[in-house]
Amino acid sequence: MGFVYSAAIGVFWFGRLANTWHHGLVARWWSEFNRDWRGSEIEYFKNVIERYGQPALDVGCGTGRILVPCVEAGIEVHGTDISNEMIRLCRARLISLGLDADLTVTPTHELNLGQRYRTIISCGVFGVGTTREEDLDGLRRIRKHLTPGGCLIFDFYLPGENLNEWSIWSKRARPTLPSRWTKPDVRKTSDNDELALQTRTIEFDPMEQYSVREIRMKQYEDQELVNCHQYRIRLNSYFKNELLLMLNVAGFDQVEMYGGLSDEKPAAYEDYHLMVLARA
User: Fold this and answer.
1) Integer-rounded Cα radius of gyration of the chain
2) Methyltransferase type domain: from which residue to which, for each copy (predicted)?
């Protein structure tokens, strides 16, 4: 099934997997409510760029949560994202601050910018909305965009932070899918509309190590539902050693992994959020 639209309340739904769910109301949510999420990440990546050099590239920059503060600090950072709406919102935010940066709409596995960078960063993007083949192609493309000795820094999360998440890997304990919608996260926008966000899991394949998540965003004006957007996205799961192998295949000879927002604490068994530093 393809694209479906209901004019009554503006319901968007994609029967096929979208490359990203950051469109429409979801892009608006990301722009309004995720600017300062985990501010420690912003400082970490700013410091990383200052350490490894400019120019830098933010792959999957979205609405500029990391890119804009870097540009404000006088750091030369370019950005890419697969969502034209996210790039549009990022550019508008830069313009509102009297700033500018080179922004390009492109998926990572098709990256072809015609220049190289000393530092490439990517936060919360790897394995999101892609196939595993595209993830490997993306690493290869990034490698080609680094100067000799340049550094790629990105993060990823190991599967199953807690026992409840691990249960989906067990056939006997796996819940019936699709799962229930999460409780609505309702927030007021800058123009006094209300957006309500919900997510659920609709598919999980432990052999291929991916899940499919669905997001539903409702827009209310004066407590009346006026829009509802729904999107699906594929999320790939990776473990440490297979990612190391992928990076080696992509041409990265020197790879280090650290626990959390650090380049000092080597990744250990208790770590769930890992930071990868890979040298060209």
Assistant:
1) 19
2) 57-152
